[in-house]
């Protein structure tokens, strides 16, 4: 029977470690997309790498994802599918959509090197098919390219030439995330990184000068200590599965029914980094997906709150809509469709009401008298002219909603499948160096993926999290490897 | 000439301190309302107290405030003015208004002991006049009691019996905050606390077991070290005057023109606590005052966004309105008044447009065609019946806006005086013990006031910050004193 080690310490001092069980130039904590990328890159930089994972194998939340990666600037897939893109257009879109206070340095670097990152992924064995899927959140076929953000919606379509940048890994069905991680774990194994699974890292170790020197883990009921000569890379996921942390930092996210995460997303990586002096920033923000756009014709309906009023352009991306619905409307919204626009939504969604007249629909939904009638009269009058003066929905998506019966799909948090994961985390440089509250480096500590605050603090486009995790994971691994070389040399 | 000590370390180890310049049972950092209360309480508990302040004297941001303190449950002032209140009603209001994820333990304790805290303040020499001022944000006379929150607004008026709980310290003009701090600094001096001003605390000192053992300060260009036998109480204000921190944690607050804070509100106290292992929570939230309610008749107007739509009940408290205007409407709102309701606002506010018809007003404001006309037609029709089906503004505040000319007051962040301070900070127990990211105590570290996350994370009522600072400052001082006794005894 496993010995009970009790609650782990927040931080350990090196002189409390009687014996190191193993050591390496770079110790990577977590074997999802970020950890795999960090390990591969650190190995490529010549470092001896130890990769520690709490589960029985690699994968993490990346493996559970839809395998979509936000890439652009002119990837071979974009070109093959006839789309023109540039790093500048990609950068302009991300700066405009990820604000306020998006990490400009990270966005500029990522946009500039996105094509190179595509080639790196391919070199690791990640398959992409040169095919365009179209607008939509993910690809249930084995197709690749789609619009996975708000590029075609106002104001973005005026700020940056739109291009589809969602690159889904080639794999039929919704197993593309699994395929991505099969490729990355195979590449990690080939790289020569030493991998230890069933190793739950709980505490960082710092030396007398407060440099991170290693990590203490729980293995088979006993404590195991791993020394890092160059640095520790925390790539241990976010905190959506830690109820106390979500309530403390981002209480509204608790209302979302579907938490996109694995057991590892309990915030342990973030907490380990904080205990070693790292600052966690933008802890209030999350990716909030409101899946109401399949089939696509549903965006021709209108989203209204409990006052019967529209609050957003329905053709903004489902994460932007989800964020507004949850944070501004408290997750109390409905999609109104007429008989011409209505279609059975995927995922299945409850119908709150169906009525022959808008007045009856309004009454059944207990909206204030006249509120929805007024909203629809205003919307329909302008839609008939191809205009949406309130929110500038694209003319292609504007059609008067006048054919009875009228339906209201229930997109309240109580009924609909709001999907959420956290976007806040450790503050890092583009090189993955963890910063303290004063903005200074925590020596020897690196982080990547959802353990960090990444490219998007809001206005999320699908695929940004895996893009961020793998792109900045590589840089963190490389930086930790460089520090190991320097330490050995010096 | 002062020696340049460079950037302070994030944290110091006790063995790096060659010599302690002074020591005490309890070291309090910061001499505003929270620090004074902590020092007085620690002295009353028998501790030797050293109070360190960066400025030339006590006061802090409390001294710059309007001197309003949120107190209730049946204070002598409430009773003398004929208002019935109970700890239960006060608690119900605070739990409902400060959510989501308000600190229930702190709220329950504060409501239960609020009358006792009133008597403590009086015992320190803080003067209150037994007079009712009425609704309004502060008292420019020397009167005391007023509604300083949303107690009379829906839904609060239905959830808890309303009572005015804003207690302004007796002092004519807007100097009541100064009067409060004159009383508290005099009481602190009488208490026998040893006070050192011009002492800028920058770094906490921890011993080998990671217990907080003291603080390093900058005094006249040299380093000074102060040992704390029992504990350090961080009462050093918030971070509204640290631009980098605001952008990192709460970027929208940057849009507010008036930052309610002193130089000390640079987040140093929070950063010191984080470096020692404390967790800072709810760092995204602030108190956002939109002063549009003086004279009171202006709430009979309607607030609209750039789409010409209402977004809130105008008789909710100005902080609740400010929060919604900034966070939900991006600080782009206007108050529409007709000639009957219009009055010159205080503070002075730009008039964006005056027109004889609503249609012209709409056009001048560049609102979508028909949007404001529709909003006002709907509002007026219901107001004529004393109803506001959208937001349930109180019938007393409902009157059709039909008398030309019509004016729009400019309450955009670019033009209006949004006033802001931060509400996020170190996570503490009701005893003031700072908690780490795992929710465990940081040994020897206490905090109070805006260095902490306090009673209100949102839905702020005026006077809560000083109430929180003084009430929980007392508890933090007492707890640190108790730990000193325990340390000496053991």
Annotation keywords:
homodimer, 490 residues, alpha/beta, 9-stranded mixed sheet, 4-stranded antiparallel sheet, 14 helices, 20% strand, elongated
Task: Please characterize this protein's 3D structure.
The structure is a homodimer of 490-residue chains. The first copy, chain A, is of the alpha/beta class. Chain A contains 14 helices and 21 strands. In chain A, 29% of the residues lie in helices and 20% in strands. In chain A, helix 1 runs parallel beside helix 8. The first copy, chain A, is elongated, with a radius of gyration of 24 Å. At the A-B interface, helix 9, helix 10, strand 12 and helix 13 of A face helix 9, helix 10, strand 12 and helix 13 of B.
Give the gist of this structure.
2 copies of one chain form a homodimer. Chain A is α/β, with parallel strands linked by helices and 490 residues long. Chain A contains 14 helices and 21 strands.
> Helical segment tally of chain A?
14
Most extensive protein-chain contact, per-chain counts: A-B, 48 and 48 residues
* Approximate strand percentage of chain A: 15-25%
C-alpha geometry of chain A:
elongated
The strand count of chain A comes to 21
Task: Give the terminus-to-terminus CA distance of chain A.
Answer: 45 Å
The whole-number mean of residue pLDDT values of chain A reads 94
Q: What portion of residues of chain A is helical? A: 25-40%
Structural class of chain A: alpha/beta
> Which residues of chain A form runs of ≥5 with pLDDT under 50?
none
Rg of chain A, rounded, reads: 24 Å
């Amino acid at each position: 029977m496993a010995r009970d080690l009790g609650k782990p310490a927040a931080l350990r001092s090196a002189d409390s470690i009687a014996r190191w069980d193993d050591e390496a130039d770079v110790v990577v904590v977590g074997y999802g997309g970020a950890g795999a990328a960090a390990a591969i890159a650190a190995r490529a930089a010549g470092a001896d790498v130890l990769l520690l994972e709490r589960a029985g194998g690699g994968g993490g939340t990346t493996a559970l994802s839809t395998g979509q990666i936000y890439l652009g600037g002119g990837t071979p897939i974009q070109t093959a599918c006839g789309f023109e893109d540039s790093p500048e257009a990609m950068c302009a879109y991300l700066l405009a959509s990820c604000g306020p206070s998006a990490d400009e340095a990270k966005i500029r670097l990522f946009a500039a090197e996105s094509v190179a990152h595509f080639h790196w992924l391919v070199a690791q064995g990640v398959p992409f098919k040169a095919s365009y899927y179209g607008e939509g959140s993910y690809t249930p076929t084995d197709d690749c390219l789609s619009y996975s953000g708000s590029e075609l919606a106002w104001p973005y379509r005026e700020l940056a030439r739109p291009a589809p940048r969602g690159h889904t890994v080639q794999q039929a069905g919704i197993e593309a995330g699994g395929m991505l991680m099969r490729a990355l774990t195979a590449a990690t194994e080939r790289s020569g990184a030493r991998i230890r699974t069933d190793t739950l890292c709980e505490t960082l170790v710092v030396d007398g000068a407060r440099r991170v020197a290693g990590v203490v883990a729980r293995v088979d009921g006993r404590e195991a200590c791993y020394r890092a000569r160059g640095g520790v890379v925390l790539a241990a996921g976010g905190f959506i599965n830690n109820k106390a942390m979500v309530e403390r930092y981002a209480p509204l996210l608790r209302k979302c029914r579907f938490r996109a995460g694995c057991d590892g997303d309990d915030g342990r990586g973030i907490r380990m980094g904080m205990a070693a002096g790292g600052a966690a920033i933008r802890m209030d923000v999350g990716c909030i997906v409101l899946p109401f756009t399949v089939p696509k014709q549903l965006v021709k309906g209108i989203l209204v709150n409990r006052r019967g009023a529209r609050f957003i352009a329905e053709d903004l991306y489902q994460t932007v809509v989800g964020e507004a619905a949850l944070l501004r409307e408290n997750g109390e919204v409905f999609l109104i469709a007429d008989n011409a626009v209505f279609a059975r939504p995927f995922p299945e969604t409850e119908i709150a009401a169906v009525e022959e007249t808008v007045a009856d629909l309004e009454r059944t939904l207990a909206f204030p008298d006249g509120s929805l009638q007024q909203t629809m009269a205003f919307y329909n009058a302008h839609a008939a002219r191809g205009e949406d003066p309130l929110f500038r929905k694209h003319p292609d998506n504007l059609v008067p909603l006048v054919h009875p019966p009228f339906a209201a799909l229930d997109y309240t948090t109580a009924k609909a499948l709001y999907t959420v994961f956290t976007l806040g985390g450790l503050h890092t440089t583009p090189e993955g160096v963890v910063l303290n509250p004063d903005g200074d480096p925590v020596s020897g500590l690196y982080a990547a993926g959802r353990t960090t605050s990444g490219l998007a603090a809001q206005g999320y486009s699908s695929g940004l999290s895996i893009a961020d995790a793998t792109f900045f994971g590589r840089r963190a691994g490389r930086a930790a490897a460089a520090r190991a070389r320097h330490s050995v040399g010096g």
